Amino acid sequence: MSILTLHRKSLYSASILWCLMGSAMAQELPAPHDWSALQDAYFISGNIDALPPLLQLLRQSHANQDPMRELLQTMAQMDESSLNFFLAQQPRGSLLLPFLHLSLGDLSADAGNRDQAMAHWHKAAADSSTPELVVAAVKRRLYPSTEQPVKIGLLLPLSGNNAAMGQSMLRAAQMAVSAYPDVPLLLHVADSRGEAAATRAAMEQLIQQGVDGFLGPVFHDAAMAAAQEAARSGRPLITFNPQKDVAAGTTVKAPILLNAFHSDQQGTTMARFAVSQRQARQIAIVAPASDYGRRISRAFTEEATQLGATVVRQLHIPDNSVDFSSTIKSLLGEPRQGAAALPFDALFLPLRADQVRLLIHQAVASGLQWSKILLLGNAQWHKPELLKDGNDYLMGAVFCDIDDGVRDRFQQRFQALWGQAPVQTTPLLAYDGVAIVAQALRDQRLGGPPWHHALFRQEGFRSVTGRIYFEEDGVARHTYPLFTIDKNGMVPLAVPSEEPDTNASPPVHPSEEELPSMKVTSGSNPDHDKRRVVTVPGR
């Protein structure tokens, strides 16, 4: 593994690489009684010498469950390769073994591999010296819960023009329910129709049924209505709409979270890459004349300016544009020829893939040479139609998106279970919404805070789109890996993707970036969990 590929791994993978390569620097061990420091020295800094005192301190902490909970939280932020690496390091009888097997079992269950999860969980509880906290956690995972289930209202557009999307999201949510069989979670599904009035009516029914919180809906008007009803009822809401005004009424009692793909985060990611990694100083932007276009342009401009670059051109075009002749003239400013005459060294195009292809071909046909221009895009580029006419003129272009391996494996799993591909990317969000609630509930059952108080927790949540953290304003923060275009097509870019506040935030955990191939078993089939999904009749 190359150092240059670390943007696709968590910081824990970086520590593993460090361990494998060795270090010429002497490391001073923390005090033998400092649990957190020893844990960080071993799991994050990769200091193997910290293992013996860590195990000794763990043996002495059998009556104190706080260090053990902290250890589980640390492991919950690791990916599968990191956990397996530390598993291989353990001596016989190590008290870390049950913690590692418990965490590996959880990752396997999240990935839908129930057989592998069961094997890890049984290993976690096999030793008589296994801490009671781990034994209790394993029992909850192995045996069905007899607790009163937590009821979550799921609002989706199940009828109307977007019914196919809604049905696909419902199936993804059911997959997530199946991935957490140990969690007493019951979904009450209602039709939002993508409308405010229908959403209000559905939420009234859900509240009468005693739901404890809500997931959805998707579209802005419906999400605004849901946020108002959730705030009024004092129940938490995780919606799938990205617009920040939806979460304007969020409170500690009734948090409103936006689990969506936020275009401004993509704009910030691309600006930071262009300026910090490629030293771009004069940048132009061509974006849609829409709320989306203005948001992503603003985020890009603010980040680029803060880093010392200048946005010298910013053009907004109609969403349906196919003729870019006037746009190209406006970009140039003056009628000059040749790449050296261009008044910018980078061009950000947060446009649809088909529009990017047309714009570049029209620009080349006009006689312009783009070899010295850094072309930048975002998730909209990640479509086959971008390279429909070849990739000669797009060689070296860079864009960001969620990991393509994550999306492909989720789609394969969805296809295997339901016999058809998911509609768009919104099913990923539905799956993640259920997973977030399930993980918060799982921690609550281990003595953690009530699940709705844990939604802003520092370590975030595992998901099929990477690790998710919620900011104070309710916005979900994702990590967007970088991709480039070369002779092989669209490939991951071997340059670290810098994220803001990396020193203040927990390590980014790709989680299901390491999803194994999905094997359909009775334990992973959502049909076996239909009893945990209730459909609310529409009015």
Give the tags:
539 residues; alpha/beta; 6-stranded parallel sheet; 17 helices; globular
Which secondary structure elements does this structure contain, and how are they paired or packed?
Blueprint: H1 11-21, H2 35-43, H3 51-60, H4 66-75, H5 80-89, H6 96-110, H7 114-125, H8 132-142, E1 150-156, H9 163-179, E2 185-191, H10 196-208, E3 213-215, H11 220-233, E4 237-239, E5 256-258, H12 263-277, E6 282-288, H13 291-306, E7 310-317, H14 325-332, E8 346-348, H15 353-365, E9 374-376, E10 398-400, H16 404-418, H17 426-445, E11 469-470, E12 476-477, E13 482-486, E14 489-492, E15 533-535
Parallel strand pairs: 1-2, 1-3, 2-15, 3-4, 4-5, 6-7, 6-8, 8-9
Antiparallel strand pairs: 10-13, 11-12, 13-14
Helix pairs in contact: 2-3, 2-4, 5-6, 6-7, 7-8, 9-17, 10-11, 12-13
Describe this structure in words.
The protein has helices at about 10-20, 35-45, 50-60, 65-75, 80-90, 95-110, 115-125, 130-140, 165-180, 195-210, 220-235, 265-275, 290-305, 325-330, 355-365, 405-420, 425-445; strands at about 150-155, 185-190, 215, 235-240, 255-260, 280-290, 310-315, 345-350, 375, 400, 470, 475, 480-485, 490, 535. The protein has 17 helices and 15 strands. The chain is globular. The strands form four sheets. The protein has a six-stranded parallel beta sheet, sandwiched between helices. A four-stranded parallel beta sheet has the order 7-6-8-9, with helices on both faces. Strand 1, helix 9 and strand 2 (about 185-190) form a beta-alpha-beta unit. The protein is α/β, with parallel strands linked by helices.
